Inverse folding.
């Protein structure tokens, strides 16, 4: 179980450039579906099951992409200026390391500051690749990179970069392996470009015309940007009630909570005041879908060291299998 | 498919410059693009297979392929420009106004403008130096501190809701072009040139879009209507290539004279990497200079187009211009010509194979 999470989190895949992580996931799911495709924006779409008389078409999405950096300028002295891909928290930058898609590695620091206690704006940070000047630079304008930090097994809890949202990709792979008899038509989307605005999920939902859409994502379970979170690590999957981008369909919330109770699985309810998920764009696709989200609690979200609890992970898989295997009426 | 073509490459000559001048001087603030649309319509009619004006005012033009099952390529450039809207009437020809599109109020004081359908001449007025305190002079102008003044005589002809724009007249100085609204009349003129040339292997879908400056609204519905296989967006992007007072200029966006700027990432779009690679390879193959626009903020019609329907592979390519969204933009003839050359080469070389590999 941890091996899969490790493999997925350690594969680089910044938004818009998900081909490497997509290949890893495709290999994992290939034995379990004979209908796997990739669309224009790079979403990986895995279909399972046929819709029975009372079944529905359910789209489950977990995003493959992760936050990262993109080179905007190489200075004459070889230092690299960069722009962000997705939401980067600047206080995590100094001392972080970066791995570019071309294999180049480097470390981040910032320009000299007058007030050392103040966190500088992102344009004051640079990546040092060890290049002695711009001509020798192993990266050029437009090259993308991700934060570089190894997987850490702490027993019940695990830590890595890109736990957001590879831990959900891992969970979805497990669900694909475990769902055997479903009355529903299931479409699993490993989505692209979530971190820049759920763009992949938007076009996938349009193309696939689901009745029900569910996003699987991480949710902050610690002090992120000084905000106390209600959701706690280890208390079970979080059923989304509301976030900045959506109000989950109460029927979906009820379906998730009732199923968890019936299966004897722990769960918590989530009301989030920062951020959103792929469910935001999927809910308003075409004439609208019944939409909700299941979150895996995660500490230190959008840092190079994101922590999740293995029991939460296991219970998320169990709850999803439960949800997708049984008939329901909304 | 590729046969040897004996077609001369497009050039920027007198007729192209005359057309650009006409387009630059035309007034088409977002939401009221009639004047530019009329010019485009006259230009494209003899060459178009289908012309349609949609509900929002986009001009949608098709040039059909001679081949069967052709690649359907969307080319988009926006007709609208930034400007102002009259929001109140203080009498005596003096009017409070608000911006239409992204405008920096620091750049407005004392600029001549044209107001309303009659193009009434006016000026953006601010407190003169005699009356302003040193403190005030350190603070930036806000829209609420500025007025548009058209004189009492003409004031009677202006009403709330009227649009205004800069009164700048186009001029060419050697290799440089100066004018208002070159963002994105350069793109519009480029599309017109491409439309006049034959590309028989492609189904070419031209969208002369409206309301880009207020949120890519025209492009959104144009892309929905056309549902192309891929899209190329032609726009203008700021060049801030001054030598800084200290250190190295690390945030220039792009540079004048360095050729068309190909987009990799902006606030609205992560360009399709297959199309970025294709454009760069095409430029190299034909020895056309190009630059990558610095990844960062800003955006083009691509932001709406690529998310349309089931998703559309999209890339933007811009002609660099200094002082964007001010009364005068400075662009270079060579950058424009190289943009046109690159797009023409791209249309001749483009094929389905580019999209046969996964993004």
């Amino acid at each position: 179980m941890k091996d899969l999470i490790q493999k997925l989190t350690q594969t680089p895949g910044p938004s818009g450039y998900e081909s490497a992580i997509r290949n890893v996931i495709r290999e994992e799911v290939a034995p379990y579906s004979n209908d796997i495709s990739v669309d224009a924006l790079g979403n990986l779409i895995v279909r399972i099951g046929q819709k029975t008389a009372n079944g529905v078409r359910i789209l489950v999405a977990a995003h493959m992409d992760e936050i990262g950096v993109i080179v905007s300028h190489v200075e004459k002295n070889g230092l690299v200026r960069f722009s962000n891909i997705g939401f980067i928290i600047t206080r995590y930058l100094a001392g972080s390391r970066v791995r570019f898609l071309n294999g180049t590695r480097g470390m981040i620091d910032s320009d000299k500051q007058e007030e050392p206690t103040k966190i500088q704006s992102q344009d004051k940070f640079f990546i040092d690749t060890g290049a002695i000047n711009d001509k020798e630079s192993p990266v050029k304008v437009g090259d993308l990179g991700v934060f570089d930090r190894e997987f850490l097994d702490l027993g019940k809890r695990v830590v890595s970069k890109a736990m957001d949202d590879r831990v959900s990709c891992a969970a979805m792979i497990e669900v694909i392996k475990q769902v055997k008899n479903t009355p529903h038509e299931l479409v699993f989307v490993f989505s692209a470009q979530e971190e820049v605005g759920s763009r992949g999920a938007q076009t996938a939902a349009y193309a696939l015309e689901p009745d029900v859409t569910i996003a699987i994502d991480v949710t902050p379970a610690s002090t992120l940007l000084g905000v106390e979170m209600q959701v706690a690590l280890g208390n079970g999957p979080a059923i989304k009630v509301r976030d900045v981008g959506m109000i989950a369909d109460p029927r979906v919330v009820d379906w998730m909570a009732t199923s968890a109770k019936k299966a004897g699985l722990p769960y918590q309810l989530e009301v989030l005041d920062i951020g959103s998920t792929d469910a935001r764009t999927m809910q308003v696709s075409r004439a609208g879908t019944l939409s909700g989200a299941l979150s895996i609690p995660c500490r230190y979200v959008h840092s190079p060291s994101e922590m999740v609890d293995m029991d939460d992970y296991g219970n998320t898989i169990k709850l999803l299998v439960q949800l997708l295997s049984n008939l329901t009426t909304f | 498919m590729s046969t040897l073509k004996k077609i001369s490459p497009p050039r920027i000559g007198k007729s192209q410059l005359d057309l650009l001048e006409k387009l630059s001087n035309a007034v088409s603030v977002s939401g009221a693009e009639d004047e530019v649309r009329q010019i485009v319509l006259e230009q494209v009619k003899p060459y178009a297979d289908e012309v349609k004006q949609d509900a929002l005012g986009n001009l949608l033009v098709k040039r059909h392929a001679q081949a069967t099952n052709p690649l359907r390529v969307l080319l988009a450039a926006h007709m609208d420009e930034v400007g102002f809207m009259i929001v109140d009437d203080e009498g005596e020809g003096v009017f409070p106004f608000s911006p239409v599109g992204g405008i920096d109020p620091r750049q407005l004081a004392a600029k001549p403008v044209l107001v309303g359908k009659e193009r009434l001449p006016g000026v953006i007025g601010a407190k003169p130096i005699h009356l302003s305190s040193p403190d005030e002079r350190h603070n930036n102008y806000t829209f609420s501190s500025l007025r548009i003044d058209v004189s009492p005589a003409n004031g009677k002809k202006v009403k709330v809701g009227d649009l205004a724009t800069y009164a700048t007249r186009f001029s060419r100085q050697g290799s440089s072009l100066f004018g208002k609204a070159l963002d994105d009349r350069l793109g519009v003129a480029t599309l017109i040139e491409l439309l006049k040339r034959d590309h028989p292997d492609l189904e070419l879908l031209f969208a002369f879009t409206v309301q880009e400056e207020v949120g890519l609204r025209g492009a959104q519905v144009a892309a929905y209507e056309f549902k192309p296989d891929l899209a190329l967006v032609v726009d203008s992007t700021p060049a801030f290539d001054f030598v800084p007072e200290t250190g190295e200029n690390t945030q220039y966006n792009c540079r004048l004279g360095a050729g068309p700027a190909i987009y990799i990432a902006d606030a609205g779009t992560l360009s399709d990497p297959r199309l970025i690679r294709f454009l760069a390879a095409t430029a190299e193959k034909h020895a056309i200079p190009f630059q990558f626009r610095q990844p960062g903020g800003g955006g083009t019609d691509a932001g709406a187009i690529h998310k349309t329907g089931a998703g559309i592979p999209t890339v933007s390519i811009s002609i660099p211009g200094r002082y964007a969204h001010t009364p005068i933009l400075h662009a270079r003839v060579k950058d424009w010509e190289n943009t046109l050359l690159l797009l023409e080469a791209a249309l001749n070389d483009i094929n389905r194979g580019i999209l046969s590999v996964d993004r």
In short: The two ends of chain A are 33 Å apart (CA to CA). The first helix of chain A runs from residue 2 to 10.
